[in-house]
Each structure stands twice: as C-alpha cells, then as structure tokens.
Amino acid sequence: MPSTFNYGIDTLTVTKVLAIAAGKLKAVLNDKAIQAIKASQQSVQQIVDEGRTVYGVNTGFGILANTAISKEDTATLQYKILQSHSVGVGDPIPVEVAKLMLITKVHALAQGFSGVQLSTLERIVWHIENDVIPVVPEKGSVGASGDLAPLSHLFLPLIGLGEVFYKGTRSKAQDVLEQFGLSSIQLGPKEGLALINGTQFILSFAVKAVQRMHNCLEAADIIGAMSLEALTGTKAPFDERLHNLRPFTGNKLVAQRLRLLLQDSAIMQSHMDCGRVQDPYSLRCMPQVHGASRNAWLHLKELTEIELNAVTDNPIIFDAQDTISGGNFHGQPMALPLDYCCFAAAEIGNISDRRCYLLLEGKWGLPMLLMKDVGLNSGFMIPQYTTAALVTENKTLCFPASADSIPTSLGQEDHVSMGSISGRKLNRVLDNLEYIMAIELLSACQAIEFRSPLKSSALLEFAHDYVRQFVGFASEDRIFADDINKVSGIIKDFSFVEKVNEFAASKGISLNSGFEGFSDH
Asked: What is the C-alpha separation between 460 and 106, in angstroms, rounded?
C-alpha cells in the first residue's frame, strides 16, 4: 500500500478507504486535485455572474427546480438546504461509518465536477484528520437524489450546526470548533447541494459490509471444516475434479480451502472405511453454499469499488457552459447487490445452524447435546435455540428494500432505490451471522475434543487451541452467553481468521491462492 493517497486522483479501494479511516494511510489534496477543484468552483461562479439558470445553483431543489433564486440569495440557499434536509431520526450510525462518509465524499468532490470551494474540502479533511466526526442519524434516506438526510447531518458542522463525536464524547459542533479556534464556513453557490447529493451513506455501509462479510466467509469455511471433522464427515465432496465439472469460482475456492484445512488430518484418516455413504447437505454442500455467497460478495466488492471512485453529485459541472442535471445520485446500482448479499449472508447463517443441530444429535460417536452427563445438564441444546432465533430474524430481514419505491418531492423524485435501508439491513444480518458462527465454533470445539486422542489437521488444531484461549471445555452447564460473547468477539474483531491465516502462512499454506479478487485486499 502507498504511504500517501491523493484525493480525487488516485484509485480508492475498500482496503485503502478503511486504512484512511483507521489512520494507517494518509490522504491529501495534491496540486493536481486542487487545480481541478478551483477550476470547477470558478465555473460555478461564472454561471452565477452571468445569471444563467442551472439547477441547484440559482434554482430551488426537487419540485422547486423551476423556482429562480437571486444572485444575492445563492449563499443563503446553500445554508438552508443543509438545515431543511437534516431530518434524520434514530440512533447515530457508527462513528467509523460516518468517517467513511467524509472520506468518500472528499474523494468524489475532489475530482473537480462539483463546484465546491477548496476551503470547504480542506475543512472536511480537517474533520477526518482530527477525528471530529459528525453525528448522523441512521434513518431518513430513501437512497435517491442522494442520501440527502444523512449527508445533511454529516455537514451541519461546516455551518456551525449539528453535533459531533470527539474523544468519545457527543458535543455540539460549535463548541468543539471553538476549542480549536475555528468558526463556521460560508458556503458558496451549489456547495450545499454538492455536499448532500451522493451515495456516501449507502457506500460507507457497503464498505463495511464488504469487509465484514469477507471475514464471515473466511470464518465459515474454517468453522465448517471443524464441524465436519467433529462429525467424522468425508472430504470426498471437495475433490477438485468434481468442482471442475461445475466451475463456479466461489465453489472452487471453498473446495480448495476445505481441502487445505483438512490436509493430513488423523481424524479424517481414522474413518476412511466407515461405510457411511453420504454426509448431510450442510457438510457435503459447503462449496456450493459458501461458494455461492462468495460469488455474491465478489459482485458487491466490485461494484463498491466502482462507486468509491464515482462522481454521484448533481448537477455535474464540466465547465461554465456545459452542465448536466442527471441521475448519478440514484442508489440503485448499490441497492441491488446489497440486497443480494443480504440473502447470501443469511444463507451462511442458515447452513451454520444446520451444522449446530447435527452436532447435538448424538450420532457418529458424539454424546447427545455434546455433554456426557445430560438430564441434569442441558448441554449445548439451548445455544442452538439462539442460532435458530437469529437465523429466523435474518430471514425476516431478507425482504429486498430495493424492491420497494415510494415517490418523494411531490412526484419529482418518483422512483427511489431504498439502498440506504439495504446497506443498514445487510450489516444487521452480519451482526446476527457473527453470533451464529460463534455458536457453531463453540459447539465444534466441544465436539472435536471427543475425538481425542486423534488429532485434526494442523490448521484446525491451531484454530481449536486459539478458541480455547478464551473459553474452555464444558463438562457441565454454565452461562453459555458468556462463552458466546467471548467467541463472537474474536470473530467480530477479525482475529480468529487473521490468526489462522497467519499460522497457515507460517506453514507455507495460502488458503486463497489462485483466486484473484476474492481477497479483501
């Protein structure tokens, strides 16, 4: 990764934008971007000086597009658009997501098609670099004409309004600005509209979903392999020749990963001639199910990285004589893949729950409910209730928000994407999925110990031992919620997958080799 990223010039990726947000990659406005920003702002000023009518520069907004605004009122118009469109409700979005919104907005505006002042972009960069992050309510965007409400809240601090998070405290923006000796800025013509037109709310939730879902997919293969081992399943369905006959890339990747994860397992060797003909689908069909979700994830990643480098403002300023009022703000290109990934993520939870159930049945040499003394003890029966509940909750979240549209702006904006809801909903499904997989991981670790003294593969033994640093074997009932929270923590913070990958690399094994694009890097 480069040491510096140039807003508006360099190509932004999911990895880079997350690194900028984490303070691991410095992002700047270089001379080339500054020239483009100034030229675009001068074009807007020329439009105002010449009195030519351009939407959002000297007209009202939405249904008020035919209402002329005087030259004297153009600055007031931009101030009022931030005020009037700040109608978000609900809890604040995560601080990291709001910071991603700031970063992605700067990158879009710095390309020089939006007519904003350099000083405005420099103030937004100041917010990013000083971690003074605006408070943005989670609800209120319909995902077309831009994410109007959340972006309005995001930029209220520029004009001295709204609230910010700073050093873990929620404060009035004006109070924090005063601590730094800063005052609010005066927005120029079109600036307010440029700030709130765009898909940065949808996009930032998509960025987080790409990161989080990749982690879940990686974890699902490892955990699924552990469950297979505990249930003395066969690796025959992961044969490369089989998957070359139906060569979906995600399927082939998952099959390869499972082969590597199960390599040289003594448990696997111990039952090669057991006479069992077939395993249940949740074991046998992991390449097909996990692989299909991998393909959905890759599609989302590819479209997210197009959107990361797109200009989603309106109108677009090519020069003073050439402006286009179009629809680049419409969220549909992101809404559809976000909904698709919602189903894909939910399915990973669905098949994980089925493996949890298999582990409890008391078949193939495992004790019923994964505990020797049941009756007085309920064993691992009740954690599977939680996976069942979470799987069902995820199913209720699978209605595609993008299938709906409600006209706004008195019919001027008569088809909207609802992609903002798609993005938030996918992240809620991922919240639940992380818990579901934590319960399968707990159950698989418990079950695999009943195969002792036989050992699994080196990679899966490492994964088991890493989990045991946080929770121990359960010989009797305890408050399993504590265990679930500890194990979900190592999934949520990516450490489980990272540690297994690092151990694999130390053994000369690359779990994703030969499958370009399927890494999150």
From this structure: 44
Cis peptide upstream of residue 453 (ω within 30 degrees of 0) = yes
Q: Is the pTM of this model over 0.70?
A: yes
Task: Write the CB contacts of 106 (distance below 8 Å, at least 6 apart in sequence).
Answer: 7, 8, 27, 29, 121, 124, 125, 128
Residues 192, 141 contacting (CB under 8 angstroms): no
Contact (CB, 8 A) for 155 and 101:
no
Provide CB contacts within 8 A for 8, sequence distance 6+. 29, 32, 33, 36, 37, 106, 107, 109, 110, 111, 112
| pLDDT over 90 (residue 59) | no
286-308 and 200-230 helices cross at what angle (nearest 10)? 160
Per-residue pLDDT averaged across 144-168, rounded?
A: 96
Angle of the 495-506 helix axis to the 458-467 helix axis, nearest 10: 140
Is the peptide bond between 134 and the residue preceding it cis, with omega within 30 degrees of 0?
Answer: no
The catalytically annotated residue of 55, 166, 340, 435 is: 55
The dihedral region occupied by 517, where left means phi > 0, alpha psi between -120 and 50, and beta the remainder, is left
Q: Whole-angstrom Cα distance, residue 114 to residue 143?
A: 19
DSSP 26-82: EEE--HHHHHHHHHHHHHHHHHHHHT---TTTSB-SGGGTTSB--GGGHHHHHHHHH
pLDDT tens for 462-521 read: 999 999 999 999 999 999 999 999 999 999 999 999 999 999 999 999 999 889 899 876
CA distance 163 to 247: 51
The answer to whether the beta carbons of residues 511 and 290 sit under 8 Å apart is no
Specify whether 55 is catalytic. Answer: yes
Confirm if 461 and 266 have CB atoms less than 8 A apart.
no
Q: 400-443, pLDDT tens digit by residue?
A: 999 999 988 878 888 999 999 999 999 999 999 999 999 999 99
**CATH numbers and ranges of domains, the chain:** 4-198 (1.10.275.10), 205-312+328-506 (1.20.200.10)
Which secondary structure element, helix H or strand E, spans residue 274, and what is its range? none
Q: 158 with 168: CB under 8 angstroms?
A: no
Select from 217, 222, 212, 231 the least CA-distant residue to 441: 222
